[in-house]
Amino acid sequence: MSILANKDTRVVIQGGAAGVNAARRMAEFCYLIKRPLNVEAFVYPPDAGKTNEISYGSGLIAIPVYKTIAEATKNHPTINTSLVYIGADRAMKGTMEALDDSHIKVVSMITEGVPEKDAKLLGAHARKLGKVFNGPSSIGIISAGACRLGVIGGAFDNLVLSKLYREGSFGVITKSGGLSNEIIWICSQFADGITTAIGIGGDAYPGTDYVSYLEMFENDPQTKAVVIVGEMGGDLEERAAEWYGAKKRRVKLIGVVSGFCQESLPKGMKFGHAGAKEGMKGEGSARSKSDALKKAGAIVPATFGALGPAIKDTYQELLKSGQVKEVVEPATLPKLPKTVEEAMKADEVMVAPLIRTTISDDRGDEPCYDGYPASELINKGYEIPHVIGLLWDKRLISKQEAEIIKRIMMLSADHGPCVSGAYATILAACAGIGLSQAVAAGLIMIGPRFGGAVTDAGRWFKYAVDNKMSVDEFLGYMKKNVGPVPGIGHRVKSLRNPDKRVKELVGYVKSLNIKTPCLDFALQVEQVTAAKKDNLILNVDGTMAAVLVDLGFPVDSLNGFFILSRTIGLIGHWVDQKRQDSRLIRLFDYLVNYAAPKRREVPPLK
Amino acid sequence: MAKVLEGPGMGLMKKWGIHVPNYVVVTSADELAKLGQANDWMKASKLVAKAHEALGSRFKLGLVKVGLDLNSAVAATKEMIGRQVGSITVKQVIVSEMVAHKEEYYCAVKSTREGSEILVANCGGIEVESNWDRVKRLCLEVGQSPSPEALTKLSKDAGFTGALAKKMADFAGKMFTCFDNEDAQYLEVNPVVVRESDGEPVALDAVTLLDGDAKFRHPDWNFQFAAEFGRAYSKDEVEVMTVDSKIKGSVKFIEIPGGDTAMLPAGGGASVYYSDAVVARGGKLANYAEYSGDPPDWAVEVLTEKVCSLPGIKNIIVGGAIANFTDVKKTFGGIINGFRKAKGDGKMKGVKIWVRRGGPREKEGLDAMRALKDEGFDINVFDRNTPLTDIVDKALQKQ
């Protein structure tokens, strides 16, 4: 048996993230004692209509979130308990709502920093309705082997170590959350464990006090002794002593009180809990409380350290008198499934990776490109072309190579608004499309007819050079197997109207005195083709391709140089249109050749 | 509970219709002189000047001067401002009119478990302290207001008669209204005097304790709360309070000069048991501290730095019970960073560290603490199998 929380307890949790976390802890306990999750619903208006996913074992349970307590209890009429995790400024209203619902009999408030007046009003209201209002600032309530309300009991391992999977003979009532766990642990090590442990909260005027629960424990035959952990301030311990001394009680009472240090500390000093403060005239001191408990016949160890042995003595007496029997522990207990990360760390599982990367890693404090930390590259004078070399070709290129790449990019960054890519981006910008989509629209244009010939040009020039073809052999091969030579030909430029970008790039590369077999071959091809037709010149795509192949870049990466450079221009066009607040544009009819059939009658549908 | 100084305390009473003397709070003698030109009452009445700080025994310290005219009030203010009393520097002086009166009475409202209690006596000043049986009480349940009849009965029971009985009943009623509406935990007026000029009861001195947790619904609480133990908060204490106000969970820090055992325990409850254990073993506490509610590691790091900066410490007690949800590894990470910084600043020489803890990720946390040994820390680490306060016994035995 237990008090307050048992196997029939069904819970609604009021609140957001903290409440969800509590539900997860409660699910761990339910899993340990092999019972279904006792949380039925959440009430949290911002998330109403959604569900919270709570892990149970290795699975997930979806718990609905409602706007009001009434909705929650209407849909889940077995709810009889509410846990309040609402912020201090709204906690009063939410708690009243729970107390006023006829389904709910117990409300436990976890919220800290609730105004004293609100706590008193809630306590008085609950007493009037004959309900239990526990808290504020309560860590929760746990009945061994039956029910956990809140995070009391701690992590899964601690639940097992403290033997909370089955009931013992000791009741526990504490103000402090941390100490509740400590006492549960002590009861499990020095005796047979607990029946129910309750955190009443450390506020000055909690809704329910030691006496409320001592009375319940007295009526619970399984509970043979109750441990209370008090502290200076208020009169709750004195009232507990008064209750215990009033008549012969079935349960034994063991109590410790903290705050003796107050005698040698500055008066009026504030301790961790709101209620832990001696009165102005010395009432509520640790000594007066401890004396009152002793006088009432309770067992009062001199220090907290002596509490374990005192509990042990009490347990031995109970054993001797036959009131309790030695506990037989279950042979096996459920183990909480590990996460994949935890299992990998413990070398218990092997996972086949989904993807493999060979270029970068940002798991440390900064990204590394092919192993080199970004900041170190910056500090040692490396630039953007070097990062391209590392990420596209996994090598640190030379200063000279970097200069060539920089020039290629500068020459191809933009080519005015009329070309397919820029026009598409502008059209999108005028339609109010965002930056990334509008730039993507421009990039989509890059293909066989616009800017996308670099890779193909590089591939075939390389093919010719690798196979030591003559220009004639190459042109013959291309005509037979491929078609027009990629990288050769221009819509407007010709021998008489040369492309200045090509001249500039070729001139610079040739001035460096490096070996450029592809470029040399491409220029020879141009001599033959341009002689046949004026505009069959080596275009900027072909020039870039030949140079980049000569620098050793993989053929498949070559279009990337155009895509990367032109992105600079596309972004510029989008920003430009945005800055001008350009309006939606559409084609004029006179720019369209309407070649569709003339208007005609639709035949009847057959 | 949050203590409020006399000025803002009287301000709150005035707001709820309680007569208070005219008063001003000034930060310089010049300010008072200028106010004197602007306010007729300051020229017409005798004045009282008091240091407006959280100090006990101000009379003995010469920080209360009575029967002054404006010039001597300015002189008294000049003398008080900047005076150093312990850790407190007097920064403000409250100057109020003296109210001519014959009798002194007492009225207070205090918080009780059931609700509140109104206290009235027909004696006041120091007389009421020695005649506590003359204080009559009216108990009220939370949510309940006193009826005029009950207040009159209280007043008459306390020995007031005739017109004064009615006036004291009104006064007590207003005290209750102020208490109830301002989320007060204690209001005391001692003495209440009857002003000779119009026969009205006036609050001559106010003790006001408010519920700091209710600040969210009182936008007009634009004053600072005063320290409650007769001294100003130190720079490090204020720094930790600032951190505390910003975070989930809490960190607390109060210095106790002259001690040599520094406290860095977890939990509002356990921290007091640790402090008790130190005192019980004859140790001298250098501070009170606690962290709880799974605070962020950086907040615990700040707290640790302050604890390590306490002068003359020999032991640091990093105690704690078995946590429910405070992540031991994470919070210990903050403590370890704080220790390393302190060591880097040369603060950990001859300091022994004692650790005991349990809770989520306790093994990882305790292992990380143990590893500090290799960095040259004098550290002793214990797990949940060592009873809570045994590390204090071990620490103080070895001294």
Distance between the termini of chain B: 38 Å
The CATH architecture of the largest domain in chain B can be named as: 3-Layer(aba) Sandwich
Question: Given the structure, what is the number of helices of chain A?
Answer: 22
Classification by helices and strands of chain B: alpha+beta
Identify the quaternary structure here: heterodimer
CATH superfamily of the largest domain in chain A: Succinyl-CoA synthetase domains
Average pLDDT confidence of chain B is 93
Largest sheet of chain A: 7 strands, mixed
Write a short abstract of this structure.
The complex is a heterodimer of chains A (606) and B (399). With 606 residues, chain A is of the alpha/beta class.
Main features:
heterodimer; A: 606 residues; alpha/beta; Rossmann fold; 3 domains; 16 strands; 42% helix; 12% strand; B: 399 residues; alpha+beta; Dna Ligase, domain 1; D-amino Acid Aminotransferase, Chain A, domain 1; seven-stranded antiparallel β-sheet; elongated
Tell me about this structure.
The complex is a heterodimer of chains A (606) and B (399). Helix content of chain A is 42%, strand content 12%. In chain A, helix 14 packs across helix 22 and helix 20 packs antiparallel against helix 21. In chain A, the strands form three sheets. Chain A has a seven-stranded mixed beta sheet with strand order 3-4-2-1-5-6-7, sandwiched between helices. Chain A has a six-stranded mixed beta sheet with strand order 9-8-11-10-12-13, with helices on both faces. With 399 residues, chain B is α+β, with helices and mostly antiparallel strands. Chain B is built from 13 helices and 19 strands. In chain B, strands 1, 8, 9, 10, 11, 12 and 13 form a seven-stranded antiparallel beta sheet that branches. A four-stranded antiparallel beta sheet of chain B has the order 2-7-3-4, covered by helices on one side. In chain B, strand 18, helix 12 and strand 19 form a beta-alpha-beta unit. At the A-B interface, helix 4 and helix 6 of A face strand 14, helix 9 and strand 16 of B.
